[in-house]
Amino acid sequence: MRARSKLKEILDERELSIRKCAEMADLKVETVRRMYNDTTMQYQRDTLGALCKALECEISDLLELIEE
């Protein structure tokens, strides 16, 4: 099992760009881009917290466990 980012679905649904999301969460664009593309190898607590706050969602909205 591994964690999979659902940020792409959230941003696409809300019609938000990666850049706008990064600005809202006060994160680097590349950090948000890696999570958007599900290429992040480690999820930093501060990053998850900033995204949850900016997007008004829960961690379970951002990540899901999938079978590999």
Give a quick set of tags describing it:
single chain, 68 residues, mainly alpha, two-stranded antiparallel ribbon, 5 helices, 57% helix, globular
Overview of this structure, please?
- It is a single chain.
- With 68 residues, the protein is mainly alpha-helical.
- It has five helices and two strands; from the N terminus they run E-H-H-H-H-H-E.
- Helix 2 (18-25) packs across helix 3 and helix 2 (18-25) packs across helix 4.
- The chain is globular and about 30 Å long.
- The model has no long low-confidence stretch (mean pLDDT 96).
Beta-strand share of residues: 5-15%
> Rg from C-alpha positions?
11 Å
Residues in helix, %: 55-70%
Spatial strand order of the main sheet: 1-2
Number of distinct beta strands: 2
- How far is it from the N-terminal to the C-terminal residue, by CA? 6 Å
Derived from helix and strand composition plus strand pairing, the structural class reads mainly alpha
Tell me the number of helical segments per DSSP (H or I, 4 or more residues long).
Answer: 5
Helix-strand topology string = EHHHHHE
**Biggest pleated-sheet summary:** 2 strands, antiparallel
Write down the overall mean pLDDT.
96
Shape: globular
Low-confidence stretches: none
| Assembly state (oligomeric) | single chain
